[in-house]
Amino acid sequence: MTHTARYAAAVESAIDKLHQEGRYRTFIDIERHRGQFPRALWRKPDGSTKEIVVWCGNDYLGMGQHPVVLAAMHEALEATGAGSGGTRNISGTTVYHKRLEAELADLHRKEAALVFTSAYIANDATLSTLPKLLPGLIIYSDELNHASMIEGIRRNGGAKRIFRHNDVAHLRELLEADDPAAPKLIAFESIYSMDGDFGPIEAICDLAVEFDALTYIDEVHAVGMYGPRGAGVAERDGLMGRIDIINGTLAKAYGVMGGYIASSAKMCDAIRSYAPGFIFTTSLPPAVAAGAAASVRHLKTDQERRDKQQLHARILKTRLKAMGLPIIDHGSHIVPVIVGDPVHCKQISDMLLEDFSIYVQPINFPTVPRGTERLRFTPSPVHDPKMLDGLIRAMDNLWSHCALNRAELSA
């Protein structure tokens, strides 16, 4: 066997393992059409097409289709062209990037904001850079934090402590065990996207004050969605001023692309100056920054859209519960239905798509623990009652067809 064949065999073995475990991920080729969301066109492997309804998108509020957003992007595209032409330090800072950061700082009532190419990069770059700014920093991280937070903390070279999910008592034990003089930071999320549960923000803020720790919250699944101006769960609960660093995305409820942190002017300046993930990355295209700014601005006042989304989520959960399907309901906009087996999860997803024109992606390990494989529905304000009826009928049919458990999970 040649050395190239040996490597190719190892790669093939790794892929085969995913197939054997039933968790090989397949891309679904879909085409969104302006003004038609959540409808889309599925382009099948054989080249034929079929209209489907998307039930698993992260464009939670349909802002990716909003005329205000599209108009801003068209205007910026015509004015500036396609790309930004460089990193933020080398010709890649434009008036559109500055406007977007000003909108985000205003949204979170912070002195400043710093935009990255994604929220993943924002988390990774910020959390991996903080120990350079705060020598001896200890980061306390919720065990279910997003992969981007885990990665940033893992490779920052500093000390870390992992506390059990949402377990404030365990967090206290860890804080008490460390040197009171050591700088500390607690990293957690406002909404954990796989179960849709909320982080204990106020209790964590209280501990941060008691132990003189900074607070770092990931509001990725909450920005645009919660609070009177869409600033997230911390705003909804009146706690935003107690958070030191807020991470958010522009690619979910805001419907565009990019990520950011919002914090003090000095903190944003330090991350800007020290984080390789910011320094060495070409900035967002101006048209993308313009669209994101328009979306953030619009959702500061569009409470009706948020309310309608929450209503549709409640209706879906109520109807799934009425059929005895095992859903997890923590009161957020995320609707997970537990299948509990990767093969069945993929089969149901495939049948929903092929037989009922409903697209919901199976979620398997390592995104969720083995045995908790699920379908994760994200109803939007623009899913209409007919679409909802079709989904309920399809789920009822397939649950019976596959002889799956109807005993409801506790929240």
Automatic annotation (TrEMBL):
GO MF terms, alphabetically ordered: 5-aminolevulinate synthase activity; pyridoxal phosphate binding
Catalytic activities: succinyl-CoA + glycine + H(+) = 5-aminolevulinate + CO2 + CoA
GO BP terms: protoporphyrinogen IX biosynthetic process
Transmembrane segments: none
Top-level taxon of the source organism: Bacteria
Keyword annotations of the record: Acyltransferase, Heme biosynthesis, Pyridoxal phosphate, Transferase
EC number of this enzyme: 2.3.1.37
Pathway(s) the chain acts in: Porphyrin-containing compound metabolism; protoporphyrin-IX biosynthesis; 5-aminolevulinate from glycine: step 1/1
Sequence ranges assigned to domain Aminotransferase class I/classII large in this UniProt record: 51-394
Cofactors that this protein relies on: pyridoxal 5'-phosphate
Classification via SUPFAM superfamilies: PLP-dependent transferases
One Pfam family linked to the record: Aminotran_1_2
Enzyme kind, highest EC tier: transferase
Quaternary organization: Homodimer.
Family assignment from sequence similarity: Belongs to the class-II pyridoxal-phosphate-dependent aminotransferase family.
Protein known as: 5-aminolevulinate synthase
